[in-house]
Amino acid sequence: MTKGQLYDADRLEVVKYRLEYEASTHNGVIQMFGKAFLKNNIIDKKYGKTFNQLFSLRLTGDYEDRHIMDMKTEVLPLVEPAKELIDTVSEMAKKQIQTKSLLL
Predict the structure, then answer these.
(1) What is the pTM of this model?
(2) Residues 84, 47: contact at Cβ < 8 Å?
(3) Sequence-separated (6 or more) residues with CB below 8 Å from residue 82
(4) What pLDDT is stored for residue 34 in this prediction?
(5) Is residue 6 over pLDDT 50?
(6) Domain ranges for the chain
(7) Mapping DSSP to helix (H, G, I), strand (E, B) and coil, where does residue 97 land?
(8) Of 15, 24, 38, 46, most Cβ neighbours within 10 A?
(9) Spatial distance between the Cα atoms of 4 and 58, rounded to a whole number of angstroms
């Protein structure tokens, strides 16, 4: 599994779609995710923690040239939580799209 698969902000486009906000940065999407979904208890808070861990790992991989990620302690523990997060957000997006389609 690649770093891009672990942290996939494109899956979180549901935030922009659902709330009709626009974010031009990953940080903007993260802030919207927290404000819209975590603070309003729309999604379990454990996904906020997972998302923050993934983003932190992504930043480490991108900007800390000398850091070698340990698969056993840093990457593998996030694989299943990342899959859960992606599945949860994908389901939310599907439901939102279905709801919007019914209204058209």
Answers:
(1) 0.67
(2) yes
(3) 5, 6, 7, 50, 54
(4) 85
(5) no
(6) 3-103
(7) helix
(8) 15
(9) 8
Find all residues with CB under 8 Å of 97, minimum gap 6, and list them: 17
The residue among 86, 87, 90 whose CA lies nearest residue 14 is 90
- Exposed/middle/buried for residue 84 (C-beta within 10 Å: 0-12, 13-18, 19+): middle
The Cα 30–Cα 26 span in angstroms is 6
Q: How far apart are CA 30 and CA 51, in angstroms?
A: 8
User: What is the DSSP annotation of 4-61?
Assistant: HHHS-GGGGHHHHHHHT---SSHHHHHHHHIIIIITTTSS-HHHHHHHHHHHHHHHHH
Higher per-residue confidence, 58 vs 18: 58
CA distance 37 to 55: 17
